[in-house]
Model the fold of this input.
Amino acid sequence: MEGMNGWVRDISGYVRRTGAPAEAADREKTADFKALMEDGSAQAVRAMALAMMEEVEVLDDYVGILASLDAERISHLRDMLWDEDQPERHAAALALVFAEEPVALDVLMEALEGGDATVRSQAMNVLTIKPGSRAEEAAFRHLHDEFPLVREYAVSIPGGSAREEYRSALQAALSDSWEGVQVKAAAALAKMGDVDALEALRRFANKSKEPNIRLEALAALARMGDESAVEVLYGLADGEEGSEEKTIARSKLRSLGLRPGPDRQI
Done:
């Protein structure tokens, strides 16, 4: 879930810059999500998705409801994915990310090949937590996507790096214009035993000006058994309340199954 929440943070900021639809902005934050889900009509599913986009900061409250999306409701979201209105497309993409119904993946795979940039990044991120041959093939096709978040998730697909041509592509991604792609590529290569990539991760952890990049590199090093990286994460997680680094560090520690604090409790 940490990876998905990271996507939500990335995309929610992007969506806010595009302007939220009035229908969602006017809805009260106490919108009854469950009632909208139970209604199941195209209008109700649309209202649910748009309300969720406005309430992205409390998305965790809706995960269980969204997981139960059935084929009929997913079909309504599929229609939204191709709507001419950008916020409609993005709201549908965010709702589909949590659907457990298998047909949702088919819808996302379709959107990956023809959707807009944000929809493609959502679809690719889903594949990072649902690995398999379809995910690997999709990742390889989109390593050079014009939207950096798509490329960032593409280099993170588990298993894809077992292919020699994929490994070569990861090497090239170390020089990507987007630092997020670089650090994810370095993490993938380091796991394969690439010494240069391991050193690149250490440089990101020590020198990047972006907190999320530094923390991503530290988490990657920690996953490979670097105890010093773990201690740095603990220190940042105990830092100034409300700081971006504290928030990200706590999230990274959770993803590692660790708990910060004096008693190692969150």
